[in-house]
Amino acid sequence: MAPSFGVYLPAFGELAEPARVVELARIAEGTGFDGFFVWDELVSEPGMAVADSFVTLAAVATTSTRLRLGALVTPLARRRPWVFARQTATLDRLSGGRLVVGIGLGDDEAGDFSAFSGEAVEPRLRGERLDESLELCRRLWSATEVDFDGEHFSAHVPAFLPGPLQDPLPVWAACLWPHRRPLARAARCEGCFPLFEQGGGPPLLPRPEELAAVRRELIDRGARPDIDLVCRGATGLIPPDELGPGLARLVEVGMTWWLDSHAPGESFAEVAECLRKGPPAAG
User: Fold this and answer.
1) CATH code for the domain of 164
2) 3-class SS at 5?
């Protein structure tokens, strides 16, 4: 089966202007991409502008008709789960049922946690809050009365209405291979977004044997057989004679989505030029 193709970019720098991201989404939809995903971070390197991911996605939702869209990934540990549940249900309805919820532990490289008071900086604590938040969000998305008491959060509310259009609202969980613990979380979700250590520089083609190992681990942990496996890479930096065969090998071991990945600092013109070429072919 042919994979789906998406765009993956940070709304940073020139792209912190939402109108530019909306224009990129328009180009992507017009040239045949299937999805459009943005980073969800609060800060970047000093002096670089950053846009709010969900406000930007709302604009994309209203100016596209077909693209799957979402934030990859939201560190739920720094979100109030009831606010996040309300935002995502609303965005799913606004988009006509096209939202993908991306969740992950997040990192503190730019200070997304440590730069602010009251945030959980230690990874173990972030993981606990993430798992509890996801459970609470799923209950709130169900549009039924919720009575929830966890270690970090509690909620006692009537049904959150209206609920999302999709049931279930698809969740993709990020994990950094070869760490196994996040795979237990991803196995309970509709998709997994594995990140692979590739040294310095932009991400390129993952190794098929690594993706195959991720899939085996997910299935062993009870994942659904049709779980989405989402890979990313800087498509324009991969030699054409390697790209098609490389994508085909990844599809053979389970990849369902390929995301054309862009880096902070890329200009609107640079990204637009790449998107006008359309998605690559696997084979």
Assistant:
1) 3.20.20.30
2) strand
